[in-house]
Design brief:
It is a single chain. The protein is of the alpha+beta class. It folds into 2 domains: 224 residues, Rossmann fold (3-Layer(aba) Sandwich); 118 residues, Beta Barrel (OB fold (Dihydrolipoamide Acetyltransferase, E2P)), CATH 2.40.50. A hairpin with a 3-residue loop joins strand 14 and strand 15. The protein is built from 10 helices and 18 strands. The chain is elongated, with a radius of gyration of 25 Å. 26% of the residues lie in helices and 31% in strands. Strands 6-7-8-3-9-10 form a 6-stranded mixed β-sheet, sandwiched between helices. One of its GO terms (cellular component) is ATP-binding cassette (ABC) transporter complex. One of its GO terms (molecular function) is ATP hydrolysis activity. Keywords: ATP-binding, Nucleotide-binding, Transport. Pfam families: ABC_tran (PF00005), TOBE_2 (PF08402). It comes from Desulfobotulus mexicanus.
Length: 360
């Protein structure tokens, strides 16, 4: 089966800057892709190219098997929603939503029916005659969404549509948005730099760093295995090292990997003694409980401990400038700053990443 959207080797330059570098991806019908990346990573540029607002310097985009290069933006069957809603201030809600339909020549009665349907879908029934300049930020985004959905686009592109809203509203709208898109079985690309939003909204996530598509996978898979050191760091993993940076004791966990190989240690995968609950209590009993060889136990000093409400973050100093970050559940009594602790890495919580580190 052919994918709905096929993006092949897109390259884009802005002056001497290569904004997009060999982007290739496919989207199936009804799939939601979130484009995640830091500011300047190229997310908006890729979206603008998909929409036809910018041309790529190289590469090809096909929608429904049709090459989009010669197709004007408004004939691509692509809908757009931006962060600032960009509504027409002199028109009411109904006229805003009907805009694309009227432009496409739809009769008034028919378009009115579609507008009502769309307003119901986005939870704004009964607000047809309201002026848009009197609406709240969340309502404006719902109108913008209804306007983009009304002409039944084949592909919907959303650029940080919730970016200007406060946290609570943003979470609620993100949930509603996914429900709405799924109800319509719409294929969508959603740009965000908010990780929670990307993970909760997307069927798949594409991580864009410095114009390169570093990783594209299901949220669970991306979280379980970030792939490269750059993606791991971007996702907030604090313990990404090369083998040669590790103190000898920790190195032992990784067998005979080469010095340059990057590895990741999950902060929640660090067991501290005597802070691992054990039936008999005491270090020895704990050691046998976690079932590791004595040789795997290492010593470090607590450099810093911070409480974050849902967990403790503890910085463990191994000497020689090497610091490991651990994350402890609140149910554990964390050691005092300056205390000497023994620690062990839990099974499955440390692993090699797939390439050597690159300077970025
Ligand atoms: N028209 C342009 N002219 C010059 N440089 C541009 C232009 N458009 C984008 N860029 C540059 O390309 C890079 C990627 O920009 P882009 O807006 O696509 O990133 P982004 O990931 O969407 O960032 P943000 O999250 O801040 O919106 C940036 O360095 C930006 O300055």
């Amino acid at each position: 089966m052919k994918s709905l959207l096929e993006v092949e080797n897109i390259e884009k330059w802005h002056g001497l800057l290569k904004t997009l570098d060999g982007i290739s991806l496919c989207l199936e019908e009804g799939e939601i892709l979130t484009l995640l990346g830091p500011s300047g990573g190229g997310k908006t540029t890729l979206l603008r190219i998909l929409a036809g607002l910018e041309n790529p310097d190289r590469g090809r985009i096909c929608l429904d098997g049709r090459d989009l290069a010669p197709v004007e933006p408004h004939r691509r069957g692509v809908g757009l929603v931006f962060q600032d809603a960009a509504l027409f201030p002199h028109l009411n809600v109904e006229a805003n939503v009907a805009f694309g339909l009227r432009m496409a020549g739809m009769k008034k009665k028919e378009s009115q029916h579609r507008v009502f349907e769309m307003l119901e879908l986005v939870g704004l029934s009964g607000m047809e005659k309201r002026r848009v300049d009197g609406l709240s930020g969340g309502e404006r985004q719902r109108v913008a969404l209804a306007r983009s959905l009304a002409p039944s686009p084949r592909l919907l592109l959303l650029d940080e549509p919730l970016g200007a809203l406060d946290r609570n509203l943003r979470e609620r709208l993100a949930r509603d948005l996914r429900t709405i898109l799924k109800k319509q079985q719409l294929t969508a690309v959603f740009v965000t730099h908010d990780q929670e939003e990307a993970f909760s909204l997307g069927d798949r996530i594409a991580v864009l760093l410095d114009g390169r598509l570093e990783r594209m996978d299901r949220p669970e898979a991306l979280s379980a295995y970030p792939g490269s050191p750059a993606v791991a760091r971007f996702l907030g993993e604090p313990n990404v090292f090369t083998i040669k940076e590790l103190p000898a004791g920790l190195r032992g966990y990784f067998g005979d990997l080469s010095d340059e190989r990057a590895v990741l240690i999950r902060p929640e995968g660090i067991g501290l003694l005597p802070f691992i609950p054990a039936e008999g209590g005491g270090g020895r009993a704990c050691k046998s409980l976690v079932g590791e060889k004595d040789a795997a136990f290492l010593s470090a000093h607590v450099k810093e401990r911070r409480f974050f409400g849902a967990f403790f973050r503890v910085e463990l100093d191994f000497g020689g400038g090497f610091v490991l970050t651990a994350r402890l559940p609140v149910s554990m009594v964390p050691p005092e700053e300056g205390a000497e602790v023994e620690l062990v890495l839990k099974e499955g919580m440390f692993f090699a990443l797939n390439s050597v580190q690159r300077d970025r």
